[in-house]
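RECORD TYPE: inverse folding
INPUT: structure tokens
STRUCTURE:
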């Protein structure tokens, strides 16, 4: 989950590295470090704490100018977030430095072996063993690329490594095994990064390394080989967004900015995919024949992406009449799921790098299942490992808490559901046309929701001292309740749980005591009269026990008024589309409440945006 950046060129290496790290900090933010080649040795600075601590130290005492450098932002796994444990780590008597993302599982054996051979260690990390090993391999081979090839064969686990050696100025070598690494191609300069945001400010031209590849960059070249040394030509692409999209641009937080970008995220996910009255998706290998042959879908994802999958299940089953299961990616591959070539496994991931989701996709492929990735990040690993991809094009999401990506993930699945329904002939053309027409209204409706959130602001300030908040929903409102609870606990550290309304009497109602705040996501009475009446009964049950009830309800729903302490209104849309609107007040509520508590909403404690370890 760490962020990695490497650079060779004439631009002011430390500035390039810090710029890259500032964009990668979402991946991990408990310590950071940079190193550059300075004559016959490595100059290095690393600090526990956020990037700002490192930045301040570099302002006080700058590193020398150099044409070669590497930088790292860490999410601690082995050893606490101290200066010593921060990367880079050094080898070959301080002439080599190395940074690492991932976990080296056999580090203890390696460390014991290296200590027996006379190496001394300054940190508790798994990474330092790789630095020492690489230093020794360099002494044997005299070439960093050859040394890297030797070392990767000794490491178990998953890793991206970047290294440089003072005897080879102008060279940075990277290796990737089950962990992302991208190359950025410039004029007289090259970049390496955990994702394109590390270098997009300088160049949009990128390529992603495949698994088990090594890259060597100099000012003028970037050469890639497999672990055996065979040359490979990585597939290049142009990043579709520019660096300003990943800047705060006047907002107090990335999360606030990204919530405000929901309408454009939805528009961009739909762009080019809505024909006059139906959906047209180009899913490559998953052509119409393949889609007609599947008899089951399993959606795999984690966290917020998983909740979006629960919405997708309702829509795809209703429209395309294919059974859909939704699994947590980390549970999926350990339960030996029944899969064959008639199963389509859809992975959903904003980052496209979540380790659990990636491993679930690999497991699905190994069992012969078909695979589709719904992903927001170009060139990420999960789409590259899948047969087909539906990019959501929501733009970069920097805040750790996912907001606009959730909207885009739901839209991606709605598009897929309508496409599948047309291909399989399970939905009348007029019914598809009706949904398409309503989907086109969503961006404007979202703008309206965003403009009318004064009540949420007040509520959040009033509730800043709450200790527990519950969320209830039914049908597609149930995943919205789960998402509302996750967002609140994640950034405001308040205990929050989401429940299906029908489940209340099976246990959770015992939690209700006078003053307990419960958010209730209410389906439209015009769309779902029966469900609506059921949830109104749920509201009455909790009110009778003293709960304070905040409802998220459709604009014309008067029936909830007598039972609600606060009503948050959203425009009327079709049932499957409701989550896209209903979730926004809950995202804003979490943001406002965490802000009222004075917390860092973009970088909540203990978390990282991209969970690239199991
Ligand atoms: C919650 C959140 C996480 C992610 C989850 C999956 O706000 O952001 O729950 O949704 O870690 O991440 P991706 O979508 O990158 O696979």
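DESIGNED SEQUENCE:
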């Amino acid at each position: 989950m760490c962020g990695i950046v490497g650079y060779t060129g004439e631009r002011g290496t430390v500035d390039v590295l810090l710029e890259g790290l500032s964009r990668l900090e979402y991946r991990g933010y408990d310590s950071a470090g940079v190193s550059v080649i300075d004559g016959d040795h490595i100059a290095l600075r690393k600090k526990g704490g956020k990037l700002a601590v490192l930045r301040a130290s570099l302002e006080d005492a700058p590193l020398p100018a150099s044409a070669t450098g590497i930088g790292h932002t860490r999410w601690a796994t082995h050893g606490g977030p101290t200066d010593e444990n921060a990367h880079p780590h050094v080898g070959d008597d301080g002439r080599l430095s190395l940074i690492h993302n991932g976990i080296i599982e056999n580090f203890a054996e390696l460390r014991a072996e290296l200590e027996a051979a006379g190496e001394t260690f300054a940190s508790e990390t798994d990474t330092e063993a790789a630095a020492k090993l690489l230093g020794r391999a360099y002494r044997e081979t005299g070439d960093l690329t050859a040394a890297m090839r030797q070392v990767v064969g000794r490491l178990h686990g998953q890793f991206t490594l970047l290294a440089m050696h003072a005897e080879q100025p102008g060279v940075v070598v990277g290796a990737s095994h089950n962990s992302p690494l991208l190359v950025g191609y410039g004029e007289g300069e090259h970049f390496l990064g955990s994702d394109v945001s590390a270098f997009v400010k300088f160049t949009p031209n990128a390529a992603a390394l495949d698994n088990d590849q090594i890259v060597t960059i100099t000012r003028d070249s970037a050469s890639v080989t497999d672990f055996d040394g065979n040359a490979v030509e990585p597939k290049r692409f142009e990043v579709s967004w520019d660096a300003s999209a990943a800047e705060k641009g006047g907002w107090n937080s990335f999360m606030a900015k990204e919530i405000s970008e929901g309408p454009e995220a939805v528009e961009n996910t739909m762009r080019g995919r809505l024909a006059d009255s139906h959906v047209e998706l180009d899913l490559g290998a998953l052509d119409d024949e393949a889609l007609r042959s599947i008899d089951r879908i399993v959606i795999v994802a984690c966290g917020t992406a998983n909740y979006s999958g629960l919405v997708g299940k309702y829509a795809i089953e209703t429209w395309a009449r294919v059974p859909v299961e939704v699994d947590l990616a980390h549970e999926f591959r350990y339960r030996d799921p029944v899969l064959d070539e008639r199963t389509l496994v859809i992975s959903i991931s904003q980052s496209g790098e979540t380790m659990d989701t990636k491993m679930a996709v690999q497991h699905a492929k190994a069992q012969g299942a078909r695979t589709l990735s719904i992903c927001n990040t170009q060139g990420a690993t999960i789409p590259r490992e899948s047969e087909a991809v539906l990019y959501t094009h929501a733009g970069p999401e920097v805040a750790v808490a996912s907001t606009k990506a959730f909207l885009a993930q739901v839209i991606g699945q709605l598009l897929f559901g309508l496409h599948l329904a047309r291909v399989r002939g399970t939905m009348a053309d007029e019914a598809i046309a009706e949904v398409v027409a309503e989907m086109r209204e969503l961006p404007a409706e979202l703008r309206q929701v965003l403009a009318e959130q004064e009540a949420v602001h007040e509520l959040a300030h009033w509730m800043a001292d709450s200790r527990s908040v519950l969320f209830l929903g039914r049908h597609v409102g149930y995943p919205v309740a789960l998402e509302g609870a996750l967002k609140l606990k994640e950034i405001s550290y308040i205990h929050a749980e989401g429940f299906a309304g029908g489940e209340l009497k099976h246990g959770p109602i015992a939690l209700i005591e006078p003053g307990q705040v419960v958010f209730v996501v209410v389906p439209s009475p015009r769309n779902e009269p029966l469900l609506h009446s059921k949830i109104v009964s749920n509201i009455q049950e909790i009110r009778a026990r003293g709960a304070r009830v905040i409802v998220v309800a459709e604009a014309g729903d008067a029936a909830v008024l007598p039972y609600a302490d606060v009503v948050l209104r959203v425009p009327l849309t079709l049932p499957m589309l409701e989550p896209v609107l209903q979730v926004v007040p809950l995202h804003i509520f979490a943001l406002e409440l965490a802000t009222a508590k004075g917390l860092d909403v973009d970088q909540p404690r203990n978390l990282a945006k991209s969970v690239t370890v199991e």
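NOTES: DSSP finds 18 helices and 25 strands in the chain.
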